[in-house]
Amino acid sequence: MDQIIECVPNFSEGRDPGIIRQITAEIESTEGVKLLNVDPGKATNRTVVTFVGNPAAVVEAAFRAIKKAGELIDMSKHKGEHPRMGATDVCPLIPIAGISMEETAAWAKKLAERVGKELKLPVYLYEAAQADKKRSNLSVIRAGEYEGFFKKIKLPEWKPDFGPAEFDAKRGATVIGARDFLVAYNVNLNTTSVRRANSIAFDVREAGRVKREGHPVTGKIVKDANGSPVSIPGTLKSVKAIGWYIEEYGIAQISMNLTNISVTPVHVAFDEVCKKAQDRGIRVTGSELVGLIPLQSLLDAGKYFLRKQKRSVGIPEKDIIRIAVKSLGLEELGPFKPEERIIEYLLKANDDKLVRMDLRAFADETSSESPAPGGGSIAAYAGALGVSLGTMVANLSSHKPGWDERWEEFSDHAETGQRLKSELLKLVDEDTRAFNRIMAAFGMPKATDEEKAARTAAIEAATKTATEVPYRVMELSFESMYMIKAMAETGNPNSVSDAGVGALCAKAAVTGAYLNVQINAKSLQDKAFAGSIVSKAKALNEQAAKLEAEILTAVNAKL
For the chain, which domains are there? Predict the structure, then answer.
């Protein structure tokens, strides 16, 4: 697997598009990286940029961007709501695929050392890149902000990890590190009071608030035996939060960093802020995401709100996301475009040509002179259509009048159906790609013995894949028949014919894919592999025939 890391630098400029474009141009000009998102904020006067790529390319792009930001941004004139200490305020590296946190931290140190040495800029390491845990927390490093760092940097305990121990009046200082995926998330309030917003932030953030005697704000601070202030923890783990006023929108917000979304997901943070705000006579009116979010976070949120309504969660992905966006109020302050804000959508390779076609285009492509898409892709699509019909019956059953107590039973079936549908749709294009790899292997040079051997090996490998793909279609389509059978027997009786058609499609997918397994296995030199997969495929096809008969018997009994 290729190593991929993400970089999310925060630049202290959110109002001048020209400056922002010059900085992001440095990133885009670096080979091996992809710019995913640019999210400027006028009130914070800060832009969060997200890009990904291989580690060496990401570090190079980050260096160029930090250099350009230092040339264009004058921190002595900077004003904004967000805490900051430099033109490039913070630059985290985040492991995405094929790389450990330790390896990512090593790349962060390389970047920090280069910035300190070549740009003569004070650099502090944080999170996983910082060995001294007393100064690994970003808020601790940044305390005092730009204005206070002229004195702070002279203290021995705050000597930079790299670069000069002199605070640069124009560029400030930079914090570079490695961390887990962090979601920057703001919740909007129907108040302009920063003090009340902060009270809610202290209620929920993990660090909580300082304990006081008597009055919670003006009372004497309670200290422990060592003389340190005693804290009252907040209700949400792995959450940092402050309250602020956003002049651009005329509201106060709770600004949160969700540092571990497996511990505190977005929807949990939102609901908890709603609860604490209501306790203080304040209403949450919506929320906003800064930068990107993983797909699973929005799917989890959408399913959470659907379950609260006792509605099926086995609906298409786009519909779950729409529920999440509406429930969290993510469009209150502006449009929320999933294709621009969900990291997986931005990273998705453009290799699903067939399933993106409309019905007529797909039929036209199939009927053209090209040998692909062929029977394998059609079998996969027939399987997807079959399980989609079964899923439809499950969803209709989940909210059938009088069956309210059974919503979760049918929701589980529908969720299974959506999973199978998604996997089968992927195989529509994968089958055609497998065929194209065989053709590419046949086109390899064969002038020398070495080239002939390489060509033969490539043909064999591609043909094995082209045999395994339809077998996987068989497995998924056969699995879907059990769900379809359950819908024929226990689902909404008004939709039993739909379950029957679903079964016919699923069985056609199994048998159609079986034909492809046989014809591709026939060309394999590895006869043991070929014999094994054909034998398993034959048995699966026979089982599917029996299951189809059982489903149609159940269907006909209700017609």
Answer: 4-178 (3.30.990.10), 183-347 (3.30.70.670), 359-558 (1.20.120.680)
